[in-house]
Amino acid sequence: MVKVTVCGAAGGIGQPLSLMLKMNPYINELSLYDVVNVPGVGTDLSHIDTDTKISYHLKSDDNNTGLSQALKASDFVIIPAGVPRKPGMTRDDLFKINAGICSELATGIAETCPDATVLVISNPVNSTVPVFAEVFKKKGTFNPRKLFGVTTLDSVRANTFISEIASNEADKAPSAFNIRVVGGHSGETIVPLFSVCAPHVYALEDENKIDALVHRVQYGGDEVVQAKNGAGSATLSMAYAGYKFLHAVLAATTGDTTIIESSYVYLDDSIPGAKETKEIIKGLYGGESLDYFAMPVVLSKEGIKEIKSDILSRVNNKEKELLKICCKTLAGNIAKGASFSQ
Ligand code: NAI
Fold first, then answer.
1. Can you name the residues that pair with 204 across neighbouring β-strands?
2. Which of 5, 139, 219, 301 could pair with 31 as two cysteines, CB 3.0-4.6 Å apart?
3. Does position 198 have pLDDT exceeding 90, yes or no?
4. Are strands 29-34 and 53-58 parallel, antiparallel or unpaired?
5. What's the ipTM?
6. Where is the Lactate/malate dehydrogenase N-terminal domain (predicted)?
7. How remote is the CA of residue 306 from the centroid of ligand 1, in Å?
């Protein structure tokens, strides 16, 4: 029996994500939680004739016990709760509001379902994941193998955008690519590693095209924010990406140990590959090593089995420079999140 809870289920991401999860054969119960509008979303989804059972909970239910009811016995909690960006805003601008929401949800998880695997979508991911970790540490429930910042949309965009450049080349549709994106999840902290994991794309022999492609992946979210013109940020592509990542995490619980996905994770020394990753980052950055980084991770029944540190030792000089810039910004983002709950 697998129970998944979506926190922020009535939102722009929450609704299509919940729809996809209702169709996932691994999930027996889908619990929907929000501060508004979730009875409508839950009732609507409950009419779909897939076997996944729907329950829905408002924060205000039964003297404000909605959160603990929603989270009770959850195996996985996925979190697209919080405010999205408007034109002119960076993900960092969202921190004040979203860190408070994340702290509240983390407290609920620690008290109600401390063994759950937690997937954080709420931005700025670079800082909200440390907020979760710090709350869990305080509560004595932190399991670094089961806390994931969802950065899948960066890889999804990288696969799509590179395929557009290669559109005249044979066998170069988006599905031909599996671009690993490392670092963090905002602007210059997003580092796509095209040199390591792409099949050769002739059009990219032009240096300017690579620079433009990297920039597009780093700032692809802005295209959506601008096109939506004040109505929010990516929701449908993010719901797809969140679903893709959760599906991979769920599939790994069946015992499959061949699944590798990129995610923003805590580099705990107990996880194989974490120490090596920190050493490589330290060497590139020249400063202190970082405790969090988006990396390809091998998934297993128990969460992260291994961090694939070797990918960082295969990057080219241009990507090394990008990683240096990434580390500088990321260090500040991490410190901001970590100090929030202190
Ligand atoms: P939205 O405003 O449409 O939905 C957010 C939902 O969260 C709303 O239904 C709201 O009622 C709910 N909410 C607010 N406070 C809450 C609380 N205390 N507990 C539970 N639910 C609460 O926003 P959207 O577009 O769905 O985005 C959600 C978050 O996802 C934003 O922070 C956004 O920046 C982030 N995002 C992350 C991406 C990623 O790649 N990780 C990509 C795109 C967006």
1. none
2. 5
3. no
4. parallel
5. 0.99
6. 2-149
7. 29
